[in-house]
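### Sample
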Amino acid sequence: MAALSIQERKRLRQIGHALNPVVMIGGQGLTEGVIEETNRALNDHELIKVKIAGEDREARGQVIDALIEATGAQAVQKIGKIVLLYKKAAKQNQHLSNLVRHAHLSS
């Protein structure tokens, strides 16, 4: 997967700013259920926020890296316990994609 350009990252961060986390990773860490839910959310929305619980910054980083590897997504931005993930959908859902909705709102 090609790396995102600076312009693409900036646009995705702007869209992501208004989003709320749709996946929460708690004390149990990265489970199959969390990976499935993240994949489903990425398929539907393409751009999502994930919140990772825990105070250990290094442990959160490892969870984020494992989630990115498991889903094939790209991290657009990491701030504290929140990571903004992007994965282009094979077939964009016009009703659910945050990218499509943002395009309609800004035009």
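The CA atoms of residues 68 and 92 lie 20 Å apart. This sample (Ribosome assembly RNA-binding protein YhbY) is used throughout the tutorial notebook.
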